[in-house]
Write a structure and sequence with these properties.
- The protein is an all-beta fold.
- It is globular and about 40 Å long.
Length: 138
Amino acid sequence: MANEKLTWSGEWRGPKALGTMTLGTGWHTVGTAFACGGARYLNAFMDITVNLSTDVRVRLQGLYESGGTAYNLAIATASASVISVEPEYVEFNVDADASQSLTWELYGVYPYAQLQACVGTAGGTAAYVNGVYLVSAR
């Protein structure tokens, strides 16, 4: 069999903006699922306002088809020591507004992914994601 390069539509290197979102205690997708076929790494630059909520949580899920089953991915690196890495998500232990950089290794095998966030405890004034910018690399 000859060497073939498998590519997926919608490839990009970034930055790609996902937008903003108010955070509750249940997992919600920030923006929408996005095509990332062929990317080896994905980095999310996140600006988070905590307000009166606590324990902001973030996870990345890989999908083999748009709208298909989502699989939680392990995190590769984080930009701060104020986090706790759980098997399925990253939790920010310091309940203060933050700008964070998180990186996941995709191994070039996920054609789609989605970023999700929530809080451990919702406060009187909700936490929210001010913005997320994604960059992919091969």
